[in-house]
Amino acid sequence: HKRWLEQGCTLVKGSMDRFKETADPVHAHKIAVILDRVADTYYGLPLAAHHRLCNGRDGQPLTRAEWEAVPRPAIFEVSYLGAWSRRQPYSSPGWLNMLREHIWVEPFARVRHHPAFKEVSRQLYGDPEALDRKIRTRLLRELSMMFQSVFSQKLLHNYQEAIYIDLWLLGVLTEDPVLISFAGPCQELSMYNHTYQDGMNGEGAPNYQAMPGGYYYPVLKDPKGWLQYQPNFLEDNPFVWAASAEMTRSETVRGLSLEWGDQHQYAYASNFLSDPAKVRENERRGSRNWPGYGVGVLRVGGHGHRQEVSLNYTRVTLHNAQDALSLECWFDGVPVMRRGGYAAWWHSARLQWDRPEFQALRGMDYPHPIEAADGSGFNSWSWSWAHSALNQNTLTVDDTGTGRGWGDNRGYGECVTFKGGEAAGTPGSGFQVLDVRDHYSWSRVGKDVRDWRRTIVGVEGPDGRPYALDITHLVGGQRHALYNQAWATRAEAQLPPATGQAADLAQAILDAETPTDAALARDLARVRAVERTRPTGELYGVTWRQDYGAWGPRDPDGKPYQRPLPEDAGKVRLRFIALNQGDGRTELLSGKGPWIGWLRQPLPDGQRVNGNVAFTDARDILVESRTGGTPEAPLQSAFVHVLEGFRDDESSAIAGVERLEATSLAGPARQITALRLRFTAGHTDTLIVQSEPGTVRLPDGTETDARYALLRH
Predict the structure, then answer these.
(1) 323 Ramachandran zone, left/alpha/beta (phi>0; psi -120 to 50)
(2) Stated pTM of the model
């Protein structure tokens, strides 16, 4: 098999590359000789994947006659055979385009008319055209049949690998109207749309958005890529320039991407920026909303104080996680309130603790102890934990989270308002709004919820200091639990003294008489050393601290750790201020849980850890748990938070927060939130958010009909 891949596949591609560079006929000769053998070999290869062979309808090995008779083309679904491969009979079955099942198409197209190619044909078959016919009818026809029957992503779209040049060439060479007239153009349409929305695919993550930006658009711009076929393409399609840069708008100020969907989270990412000029350039980037992906990010704050708050709100971002209306919050490029991440179980590192090089890993002074993540499958504890509602800064209702995805159990979010996009420092950039109403996420999991809405308001002070107002309104069920968690340590707490403890969150929340989802119970048990209390004053909260520079790789020989960042980069705090709802129904539960992160750590004797591990107690969790209500009068909650990021060597700029009782003067019944924030710099902000249009009056006589308002004194 190794010889097949190296000589039958890679060597052909390499010979084509050298032919393009040198035009040396010896490379055309080599391609002809190899493709003659490949055509015979591929024709006889069975359909296979994961070291299994494809069977026919009768359960016996697939015959040539049945293979020829399979209905084609398979556009919306794969054929009854399922998804299969041939060139590489392992890995993901049917990923024909991404794994380059048709690797020989372009080399053949490049040299088929070359005299050296025709001479090989004459010597082998006595006819200079015979080899061309053999390859087209024996190899390329088989490839076309594969794409039109067992291609896992069908001909409808191919979101995992955007470059369809080989597929298009395959259609031209086989004179196949399906590939020429439908498959190729459909890929182009899919990828253009994919840049701004993912509704056709039903999946999302920055790496999915980056797929066209990472390898589709570079090929379109490359003189040796698509431009050699269509030289005026860029002039005819100016949209390319905007679309090709869209993926960068998901990046935070220090180069890391927002972490919605299937995003790997690395213990330390080497692309974390410390170059002041690049950071300052990124700080100018304004807020952005991708309604098709269901992702918005609000960006506020001056130089060195950029706060970025992102909200997930529709089904395409809910790839595998219970993350409807979920939130993440970054400050100066450091993720603090962080979603669960991909935690791909198939990338879990195998930690062999009985070996001395792995024992050395235990002695390395990482911020938290390292344990093995679970690589057993989709039911593994680490996969379940990372994708649970506990890790998304979102809610459960009656101990049930929203749909995990990959099942028809997800709702969608309606973007009510997005106000933003101004570059930093320009008029309007200091007041940003993202307001989203959810539809059907709870009914799809059997919960009667009448209203679920989340509103984020980003504000920048006159001194450049930022904060965000986060309002979550929910009506339905008898128990609401909002899981606020941070990838950070708790530096300060403004909480009443603990009134009770529990070994874990499952013990604190669940009771033996109430049926509970087994996965949720297992996830709750991961939150340890739980303390419980009830809020007594108007405010409660915590302040989290994180140093990104503390997570870099350690020296395998035990030398002292050298922080890889400048002293003024990577050290941040985030203050979380919550307003008491005042009805006596709220209980606060604090605990710590693991973080599943991808570790790249050299070990002694040239060994290495490269995969997901569990960092014990690396997530700090504050649960706002509320109970009450009946089926006739369900529980209503309005969680109101203020999130303020600042540098580790600074203090909070917020001196006080108070709720104002706003009086409705006109308009329908609605939710009204009015706050007054006092700042150490001497100014005061009054914030007003109305769920529906209407006029309100504040205690000081201020009247406004604005849905979202900021008054500064």
Answers:
(1) alpha
(2) 0.87
- 3 state DSSP class of 596: strand
Q: Where are the domains positioned within the chain?
A: 1-154, 160-250, 251-652, 653-713
**398 touches 478 (CB < 8 A):** yes
Tell me how far apart the alpha carbons of residues 546 and 550 are, in angstroms, rounded to a whole number. Answer: 9
Question: Quick one: average pLDDT of 276-301?
Answer: 94
Alpha helices in 420-575 (DSSP H): 505-509, 518-524
Q: Residue 487's Cα: distance from chain center in Å?
A: 17
Tell me the pLDDT tens digit for each residue of 340-356: 999 999 999 999 999 99
Given a contact cutoff of 8 angstroms between Cβ atoms, the answer to whether 484 and 566 are in contact is no
CA distances to 52, 87, 92, 329, 330 from 2, rounded to whole Å, are: 18, 11, 18, 47, 46
Query: Could you give the percent of the chain with pLDDT greater than 70?
Result: 93
Backbone angles phi and psi of 54, in degrees to 5? -80, 135
Phi, psi values for residue 387, rounded to 5°: -95, 0
b/e code 243-260 from CB counts within 10 Å (16+ = b): bbebbeebbbbbbbbbbb
- Sign of the CA dihedral with 495 first, then 496, 497, and 503 last: negative
Please state the length of the chain: 713
Looking at residue 567, what DSSP letter applies?
Answer: T
The strand pairing partners of 492, in sequence order, are: 543
Contact 382, 619 (CB under 8 A): no
Contact 393, 400 (CB under 8 A): no
Q: In whole angstroms, how large is the CA radius of gyration of the chain?
A: 29
Per residue in 561-580, pLDDT (tens digit) is 999 999 999 999 999 999 99
Say how far apart CA 54 and CA 57 lie, in whole Å: 10
CA–CA–CA angle 335, 338, 344 (5° rounding): 110
Q: For residues 591 and 542, what is the distance between their CA atoms, to the nearest angstrom?
A: 12
Residue with tokens 């490269």: 610
**Helix, strand and coil in the chain, % to nearest 5:** 30, 30, 40
**Domain over 251-652 is classified CATH 3.40.190.10:** no
- Give pLDDT tens digits for 136-192: 999 999 999 999 999 988 887 655 555 777 888 999 999 999 988 887 766 666 555
Q: Which amino acid is at 74?
A: A
Token pair, residue 67, equals 């293979």
- Residue type, position 382, single letter: S
Token pair, residue 15, equals 């010979």
Given the DSSP bridges, would you call strands 431-439 and 586-602 parallel, antiparallel or unpaired?
unpaired
The CA-based dihedral angle spanning residues 160, 162, 168, 169, taken in that order and rounded to the nearest 10 degrees: -90
Could you count the other beta carbons within 10 Å of the beta carbon of residue 44? 11
Whether the CB-CB separation of 544 and 488 falls below 8 Å is answered with yes
619: which 2 tokens? Answer: 């997530």
Q: Tell me if residue 36 falls in helix, strand or coil.
A: helix
The Cα 373–Cα 598 span in angstroms is 10
How far apart are alpha carbons 328 and 312 in whole angstroms? 9
